[in-house]
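Review this chain:
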Amino acid sequence: MSSNPEIQSIDCTSEDEMKALGAKLLLHSTLSQGVELLHFHHQPAELSKNTSQQHLILINTHVLPNTHVEQVTEGYFQEARMRIEDVIIVPAKTISSACWDKEHSYLALCLDPVILERQAKEIMIEHVELLPQFALQDALLHSLGIALKNELEVSFFGERLYIDSLVTTLTAHLLRHYCARKPIQIITAGLPKTKLKQVLEYIKAHINEELTLVELATIAQVSPNYFATLFKQSTGLAPHQYVIKQRIDTAKELMIAGKVSLAEVAAN
């Protein structure tokens, strides 16, 4: 909680707190440790000075024409006409206030600062500072938010692995483009052959189970951030794409051998 009684500490992951501010929760899911996705429909509101313990990435999904928004971040005033796909980034512990004159819907990606710091250290940055952004047009951030929302609403092959990959891309994008210091680019030639062989054998042995980026990265003995990049350099496919391809190939082999029918494959 803030020591200043005039500054409210808001937990965007609390349905009760957000409801009191005029927001209706449409979707809430924990994507991974320290990363949560929420979808809100918010009535016109005026939010007094507040802070959050989490980094907030807010992405508009539905906006009425000529919706006006004002925001004050650390004393700096900004205003704009709201647009679909606009992104607002409010770093953790940043003092801000805002108001808008029409109802709208938005995604809220809530990120524990520890997660961003940990990933920064993996790429040799001791400290990272996420910078506030207002009425930002970033096609990749918008696409990542929508893809995560869609993945949670509809079950796909390789869902867990795909979500892990999207979250990794999200944090890497924030580090690269919206932090005070940028990560050092490390050039590699993929996973070592022995590690790649171990990972591929593990995938084959557990092809019908839910695989995660963390467990595959553990086998390769690299961080999940690096694993997705190294795996694609080695195979030409992202981890979730490779898993989907292997499942399809396995199903084809079983059908050709007459061990399963098309109906059984479709049912799975």
Q: What stands out?
A: The chain has two domains: 8-177, 193-267.
